[in-house]
Every structure is written in structure tokens, then in C-alpha cells.
Design a protein that fits this description.
4-stranded parallel β-sheet; 13% helix; binds calcium ion
């Protein structure tokens, strides 16, 4: 038996990664966390099973292109951390296979992040899903 999300499941049953995260890790024996930094150019990043992965984008490295994340598991509190951008510059969508985070304003796209084979929108509207991701710390902002 597993309590992991299948790749096509939604984020709706993911834990609250803000308030209970450390306890969850202790209870589930997760001792490992990993940070994955992105750079200018196309990045292809991979999360690891039983690791709390943090994927980091800094504004100065956003190149207007698309970066790709695989093995993203919100039930492990994997997260996307954005530096130098604000919440109102981010939009969220699901294209039927992948979750797409777009960072930009108006017609100008600073970065597309494709989170592969996971649906982080679920049954919510895209705007409500974005807020939900922020509330449960799956998407975080730093300055
Ligand atoms: Ca992971």
C-alpha cells in the first residue's frame, strides 16, 4: 500500500506542507531534502522519491523559455520556489497532461515551468488552485 499520489492524481489530497511538514517527515522517515537550482537556458530537473525536493527559480535566470520538472510529488512536499517575482505575475494551468506555471506580465513571458505528468489544478479553478498551492506551500515566493 502506498499513500503517494499516482502521477495522474490531483494535488487535492496532498498534505499541508506548511504547518505539519516537519512532523510528517519525521513520521514518514523522510530525512532528506534536496534543492535544485535553475539557470539561464533550458533546465530539465528531476525530483527523487522519498526526498523533499525544492525547485528554485531566480528572476535573473529566467530566460523566457520553458524549463521542465519531472517526478514532482506534492505528497512529499516537493515545492517550487520563485525568487524575485510576485504572486500576481504567476498563472497556473493544466493542459491535460502537465501542469504549466507561467511567470510573466501581460504578453511578456519571463519563464514557463512545465511540471510533468502531474495535475496541480485538480477540480479547482486555475486561480483557486494557484492560491491553494501557495497556502499549502507547494509554491513559495522569496525576495
Ligand atoms: Ca520528491
Amino acid at each position: 500500500m502506498t499513500d503517494k499520489l499516482a502521477s495522474t492524481d490531483t494535488v487535492d489530497n496532498a498534505p499541508d506542507c506548511q504547518t505539519n511538514r516537519l512532523e510528517q517527515f519525521a513520521n514518514r522517515g523522510w530525512m532528506t531534502a534536496a534543492q535544485h537550482n535553475t539557470f539561464a537556458g533550458t533546465d530539465r530537473l528531476f525530483g527523487s522519491e522519498d526526498v523533499q525536493d525544492t525547485f528554485v527559480w531566480r528572476q535573473q535566470n529566467m530566460d523566457g523559455g520553458t524549463d521542465y520538472v519531472r517526478n514532482f510529488d506534492p505528497s512529499e512536499c516537493d515545492r517550487v520556489q520563485l525568487h524575485g517575482v510576485s504572486q500576481d505575475q504567476v498563472s497556473l494551468s493544466f493542459n491535460g497532461m502537465h501542469t504549466i506555471l507561467r511567470i510573466g506580465q501581460g504578453d511578456e513571458t519571463q519563464q514557463i515551468i512545465q511540471i510533468e505528468n502531474v495535475n496541480l489544478v485538480g477540480e479547482r479553478s486555475e486561480a483557486a488552485a494557484l492560491l491553494h498551492l501557495i497556502e499549502q506551500n507547494t509554491l513559495t515566493f522569496s525576495y
